[in-house]
Amino acid sequence: MTTLLPSVRIPALRLAIPQIAQPWVGDPRSALMRHFREVLETRMSGLPFLNPAINVAVVECQSVAGDWLAGVVTPWSLQLVLLPGGGSLWHDTPVGGRQVVALPAGELVFIGDEGEAALPAFQYCPLITPVQHIADSATAMAIMRDAWVAMLTPPPTEPATPVAAPSAPISNSRRAFLRGAFR
Question: In Å, how far are 8, 45, 85, 175, 181 from 11, measured between CA atoms?
Fold first, then answer.
């Protein structure tokens, strides 16, 4: 039975071997805009869940830990996009594969995707999808800016609060309760 198990347990989906991505030397903002506009005009054209009040926009794009991280707004989602820059965040991931990326606010899961010649490989982390409830592009961009700041800000550390020992024994009587000394 153990010799049969490896041939029976075949995964339904086998991820392709990831291609080695070349690092971006300059700001990839224009390539991101071209890619997502092309996706909107081709693959997403006419789909019912698109929000026509939202335009494609790259709200933020900067080098983080040596790799490129961008906040992208589209009529179908608000997402973070990770591109290789030669840093520590990017790891070649097959299309559909997941990678956990440690950012200052915590860990986020990015999904491998393939683009086109101008944007051959990237990973994305959907933050809000669909975006039908967002009023317009300005609102979507404001949400993305807030998410961007939150993602790059470490959570506050709470100082340890010293616990003082009670000075007198605590009474469980009704009179103590009414005086606020009951616990």
Answer: 9, 33, 32, 68, 63
Confidence at residue 5, expressed as pLDDT on a 0 to 100 scale: 44
Range 127-142 average pLDDT: 96
Q: Which CATH number goes with the domain that contains 44?
A: 3.30.1460.40
Decide if pLDDT at 66 tops 90: yes
Question: Does 176 fall in a domain?
Answer: no
- Amino acid identity of residue 20, one-letter, is I
pTM of the predicted model as reported, rounded to 2 decimal places: 0.76
71 located within any domain: yes
Question: Is residue 12 scored above 80 in pLDDT?
Answer: no
In a domain, 158, yes or no: no
Q: Which parts of the chain fold into alpha helices (H)?
A: 5-8, 29-41, 137-151, 174-178
Q: What is the DSSP string of 20-52?
A: PPPPP-S--HHHHHHHHHHHHHTTTTT-TT--T
Separation of alpha carbons 76 and 10, rounded Å: 34
Q: Is residue 132 scored above 90 in pLDDT? A: yes
Domain that holds residue 74: 13-151
Can you read off the two tokens belonging to residue 176?
A: 């103590």
Side-chain-side CA neighbours of 136 within 13 Å: the count stands at 1
* Distance (Å, whole) CA 15 – CA 72: 26
In this predicted structure, which of 8-12, 32-36, 65-69, 112-116 has the lowest mean pLDDT? 8-12
